[in-house]
Amino acid sequence: MSYQVLARKWRPKSFATLIGQEHVVQALTHALDTGRLHHAWLFTGTRGVGKTTISRILAKALNCENGISSAPCGQCGACRAIDADRFADYVEMDAASNRGVDDMAALLNQAVYAPVAGRFKVYMIDEVHMLTGHAFNAMLKTLEEPPEHVKFILATTDPQKIPVTVLSRCLQFNLKQMAAPAICAHLENILTQEAVPFEASALRHIARAANGSMRDALSLLDQSIAHGAGTVREAQVTQMLGTVGEEHLYALLDALVAGDVPALVAEADAMLARSLSFASALADLARLLYRVALCQQAPQAIADEAERAALQRYASAWDAEFLQLAYQIVLHGQRDLPLAPDEYTGFTITLLRLNAFRPETVPPMNGAYTPSAPSAPSAENRPPAPEAALEATPAQEAEAPASNVLGAINCAPTRAGAADTNTGGDHTPEAPPAAEPPQGGRSPLGGQRVTAAQSAAGANVGVVHSPEPAAAVPEPASEAQPASAPSENPVLRALENQDWRTVETLLALTGQRAQLAGRCEWLRWQAPELHLRLHPDDRHLSEGTLPRELEELLAEHLGQPVRLRIELAAPQGETPHQRRRAEKSARLDAARQTLLDAPLVGQLMNDYGAALDERSLEVLARAKPSTSPTPEEPTP
Q: Which of 101, 124, 377, 430 has a CA positioned 20 to 30 A from the CA of residue 6?
């Protein structure tokens, strides 16, 4: 007996054995069992999802000698003849090769005659969108009111090309692509019954390569069995498909966790020696990073316990922030791969980029800050001055955890004299007044990276959730601290004068640090505690590392420990952010009135119907001198 390929041997013979199309099976089963039979069905979907298979099962259900049923017997003469493709009253027509009006006319002429052996004549027209316009017009009337013994089944991979006049005459069912887990389960069942040894990881590669098509998966499975001499092993399947095996991907993640750059390069060399596709490798690596992130934040979404256990190591080694960054790095590496000198270089530099942003410490997931006793930064942990931080050595940069690296990317300060391109903050800070920085220079938290030891120090931020806000009546300076001579420290002097906006300006904050400080309302300063109020809508600014970084920056400027207390309640007064917006609005109004008062502008508006371009007000408002102690808002 000749060999029969798996795609034909294991074609489903009933609705019960059909895989992955439950919504179609449910509708057809109910229609057959209740006798509500339409005269035309349209099945749409990509190749290999079951259009022809459902058509044959439906033909058997209509012509089974035991009666119309959703469960044809499969043993009668009609069922066996349909399975063998030799039933006279079931006609499969390929519209790609029989697409003319003459072919359609010949089919319709035969439709008027009664069935030869069955209960219904069933015409299955595959790739129906290939018919010509005249052929569609020729079948419209018969498709709308066919003889009682005729049923039409249309199938297509491109329903957009079918005229709406045909669509309106059919019941349309959209067949879904097969999910990879469903394909793996079906292949595993087939191999078990065929007594073929296999590895589950090899089936996952086949399922991904099939791209939702069960027929493609079975064809690849046939090829894999032949390639592996009767076995299906991952190494053989990856070699056949030219894909990257899981052992390479997990080896890359292991080297990334350990920070072993030679191991990363060695894996890239091994993949090059096997002529593996680096584009596919980056795609598989991005998919694996997604699974790690899923295991970290929603482990119940990974049904395979073995896979979940393998991914848990990496989910514990990295924080969620780094996983998101790593995923973006891999995607960008895949996008830029055609621009690289060669694929090996593009792949390797992506691995080096991943290692460059590798975290050294793992912050706790959903952690909260625990107030602790404040302590002044020690001499060895004191961050360098801005000039020295900007010229940091590679060894110093390697000491920064990934969370601070991201902070440096998003919130890095500009050099002196350079334009600040950061538009994420509330304002563009102006340079602080000329003054000697206290005790060894500024903290790098305005935008520079810090070491793990410095990040751990001073975690003493207290966030107070207060549903009933206290009255925003600042205490007199005489009650807050003993009377003394005016301080020479400008930041301390501004705190003593209860001038939070000046403090914010002197700190020269950028990015989210500027957002946090600008949206806080001053309450009181009782050394070493600084009390601020933040609206509950801006709660996200009080979570994470921003309050601690602001606290450390204040401690560095003041030369003494600072404990930041942030109360979550609606502000009772005006915040620096609100003040800047009010000043900007006033400048825009003044600029608008200046233009309207200009004689030439009034003449243009009256004589030619000219209208004022509001965007020009931004330029004019910035050109006007401002009495505000802070610079103007950046143009969105």
A: 124
